[in-house]
Design a protein that fits this description.
The complex is a heterodimer of chains A (about 450) and B (about 240).
Chain A (H helix, E strand, L loop, with lengths): L5 H10 L1 H53 L1 H9 L6 E3 L11 H11 L6 E5 L24 E8 L5 E8 L12 H38 L12 H46 L5 H27 L7 E4 H14 L4 E5 L4 E4 L1 H19 L2 E8 L2 E7 L34 H11 L3 E6 L5 E8 L1
Parallel strand pairs in A: 6-8
Antiparallel strand pairs in A: 1-4, 2-3, 3-4, 5-7, 8-9, 9-11, 10-11
Chain B lengths: L10 E5 L3 H11 L5 E5 L2 H10 L4 E5 L1 E2 L2 E2 H10 L5 E6 L4 H9 L4 E4 L4 H17 L10 E4 L2 E4 L4 E3 L5 E3 L2 H12 L4 E2 L1 H4 L11 H14 L9 E4 L3 E4 L4 E2 L1
Parallel strand pairs in B: 1-2, 1-3, 3-6, 6-7
Antiparallel strand pairs in B: 4-5, 8-9, 8-15, 9-10, 10-11, 12-14, 13-14
Helix pairs in contact in B: 6-8
Classes of the chains: A alpha+beta (about 450), B alpha/beta (about 240).
Chain lengths: ~450, ~240
């Protein structure tokens, strides 16, 4: 078992659909949440500015009102700082940074001809004398008030200038780039994304498992059609496909069985008639042909019956089976060895397993000059390996070997003999006890056929 | 029953619905000194059996008016001791087991070697005449110690129904022990086909020791086959046929 490096695992996760949904949702929702916060922040800033201007407008309009009613007294009071929040503006202050929006509002309130000018200025201009005063420690760092200078022309055509002061209105700092907020947003998005990804991937997994089971077992159960509508439709289509594939498969098997079965009678007649042929050379050749046909028919019947094994399941001592088979083959002079066992028992259909192994061993002897049988358990699986010492199979032909009537290349020793159904039968027998058969080339040469079953 | 005089040839009845095959088999059997009868259906077969004394039937299983297996059971139920060789195109293991269980003496699948049929007929006739009790026992299992031996599927069955497989040599060996339990068997009797060298043949010891190992996997299975120094081996257990 190879352990994936963390980086490779992360990459593998984002290669999955769940991973991609997770990525899209997490990024998308985080970005959406941040944009929403930015918009809210903008609105808050706007409100803040509006309140600030409203204060300036209120003071400016009030003072302008008073000036109109009693200009001399109000001017004197302003000059003496007798009005809190309003004073005479110091002369010669240039308003470098005027507030256009504020000026528009002021011109509405003070009259079209007022030509107001307004701008925020340093706090010192509102309190020219303050700089001289000593301060107690507690207010050294106190926020300086806001100071605005407003100029306008009153109804009499006189240009007025005032300095308006307000308690500082502190704008609370923006919360949006607070890491805690970002963390909450991202974690919540990720959590939701995982939920969504799971719920989307779950029916797909079920479909995948069903497809997997279909390829392993010939009599799989239908997948229950549950879940959202699209998923139900997919599952029901899959079930339909499964039924059709099985029906087609059964039909093929029945056809094969019927043909093979019906060929037995003419073959019997032919065999009996061959005894009447007097020319012994001709008879031997015909016997050879007859033998070939008979083998084909027998294997055809084997293949047909292998797909519908009615054999009962039994628990068997696996090593006793492998050792016996090797022994029997050795007794018949075939170079077959039982190399290593795995102990214990396994639940199978014993005759199907025996014939399956026998087919693989026959192949190994025929094409690879001998067979070594071994057994291994790993991760709840039991694997029976049949290894030959032949030249191996070209990598691009390995999968084809399971197709009926495929034989080793004619250049190979032992190639182009036999019917080419041996492996097909072996695989189909293996399916009857829920096992699979694989072929691979051993690194040291030769082919390893593996029966992989629940152990 | 002992009748070896050529004056009275054995009567063989060939039953097959395919006229060609029937005639061809009969043609083959003409080489031997048999009296030959033919039938193409169950009805014909029953009629022939009523009228003639038949020693052996070559019986095809698929007949137009019924199943050869049923007839086989009928005949055995009536106590007929006619020999039966079943010939069928089915060829699956289940039919073979069923055929033998229902009382056939031998079983052959189509297409068969004509000579094989001749040899089997000859063997059955010889065995049947000299020793009618030698017909394969109908018992399916032989129980000894904690084990049962499945005589048809040729494997050992533990009390919990789990299976231990036997090689052909081990099965032959065990069958010999079961035929004569509690009797010391020499190497020569155990492996008659290798009688000449059996006394020195270590492979028999190897087979016995493998068999012991398999038997010893159950409690009470480790002292079933005992060595008798200088004489051979003994199965130290009673045998019960089931």
């Amino acid at each position: 078992m190879t352990r994936l490096q963390p980086l490779a695992r992360i990459r593998a996760f984002f290669g999955t659909m769940a991973g991609q949904i997770f990525l899209i949702l997490t990024l998308g929702m985080s970005v959406a949440a941040i944009i929403a916060l930015l918009v809210a922040e903008q609105a808050r800033h706007h409100d803040f500015e509006r309140v600030r201007r409203a204060r300036v407008v209120a003071s400016a309009v009030d003072i302008a009102d008073r000036l109109q009613r009693d200009p001399a007294r109000v001017e004197a009071m302003m000059a003496n700082h007798r009005i809190v929040g309003a004073a005479m503006a110091p002369a010669g202050v240039a308003l470098s940074d005027t507030d256009g929006e504020l000026e528009t509002i002021l011109s509405e309130r003070l009259g079209a001809s007022s030509q107001p000018e307004a701008g925020q200025v340093p706090a010192g201009l509102c309190f020219p004398s303050r700089g001289d005063k000593e301060r107690a420690a507690g207010i050294i760092d106190a926020p300086r008030p806001d100071c605005w200078v407003v100029r306008f022309t009153d109804r009499h055509g006189a240009r007025r200038a005032m300095a308006l002061s307000f308690p500082r209105l502190a704008k609370p700092p923006s919360t949006i780039f607070n890491p805690l907020y970002l963390l909450v947003i991202i974690v919540a998005s990720a959590g939701l994304a995982i939920l969504v990804a799971r719920s989307v991937a779950k029916p797909l997994r079920r479909l995948e498992r069903a497809a997997e089971a279909f390829s392993l077992s010939l009599d799989p159960e239908e997948i229950p059609e549950r879940g959202p509508e699209e998923v139900r439709a997919a599952l029901s289509t899959f079930n339909l496909m499964q039924r059709r594939a099985r029906a087609g498969f059964a039909e093929r098997t029945q056809l094969l069985a019927a043909i093979s079965h019906d060929l037995q009678t003419p073959l019997t007649r032919m065999r009996l008639r061959l005894e009447l042929v007097e020319n012994s050379e001709l008879r031997d050749r015909l016997l050879g042909d007859h033998q070939a046909m008979q083998t084909l028919v027998r294997e055809g019947l084997d293949l047909a019956s292998s797909t519908e094994s009615r054999e009962e399941w039994s628990v068997i001592d696996i090593d006793s089976l492998l050792a016996s088979m090797a022994e029997d083959a050795e007794d018949l002079g075939a170079p077959v060895r039982f190399v290593s066992g795995c102990g214990g028992t396994v639940r199978v259909k014993p005759n199907a397993l025996t014939r399956c192994i026998a087919n693989l061993v026959d192949n190994a002897v025929k094409y690879g000059g001998g067979a070594a049988i071994s057994c291994a358990r790993s991760g709840g699986r039991l694997m029976i390996h049949v290894r030959d010492s032949g030249p191996g199979i070209p990598a691009d032909q390995i999968d084809q070997m399971f197709e009926p009537f495929t034989r080793g290349p004619s250049s190979q020793p032992g190639g182009r003999h036999g019917t080419g159904i041996g492996l097909t039968i072996a695989r189909s027998l293996a399916m009857s006890f829920e096992a699979s058969v694989r072929l691979r080339n051993a690194p040291e040469g030769g082919v390893i056929a593996t029966i992989d079953m629940k152990g | 029953m002992l009748d070896s005089s050529p004056a009275r040839p054995a009567t063989v009845l060939v039953v097959d619905d395919d006229a060609d095959i029937r005639d061809l088999i009969i043609g083959q059997l003409h080489q031997e000194n048999y009296r030959l009868l033919a039938a193409s259906s169950l009805a014909e077969l029953r009629r022939t059996l009523r009228e003639e004394a038949v020693d052996l039937i070559v019986l095809d299983l698929n007949l137009p008016d019924g199943d050869g297996l049923m007839l086989c059971r009928e005949l055995r139920a009536d106590g007929a001791d006619v020999q039966i060789i079943m010939v069928t195109a089915r060829g699956s293991a289940i039919d073979r087991v069923l055929g033998l269980e229902l009382g056939a003496d031998d079983y052959l699948t189509k297409p068969f070697e004509p000579r094989e049929l001749l040899v089997r007929i000859r063997n059955l006739l010889r065995r049947g005449r000299s020793d009618p009790a030698a017909r394969p026992a109908a018992a399916r299992f032989a129980r000894f110690g904690p084990w049962r031996l499945d005589l048809q599927q040729r494997r050992l069955v533990a009390p919990d129904d789990s299976l231990v497989m036997l090689s052909s040599a081990e099965f032959r060996l065990l069958s010999r022990f079961i035929e004569e339990p509690n009797v010391v068997l020499s190497r020569e009797t155990l492996v008659p086909e290798r009688r000449a060298t059996a006394a020195f043949d270590r492979s028999i010891d190897l087979q016995v020791s493998r068999l012991r190992q398999k038997l010893a996997t159950l409690d009470g299975g480790d002292e079933l086959i005992l060595t008798v120094r200088g004489e051979g081996y003994v199965l130290a257990s009673g045998v019960e046929h089931l």
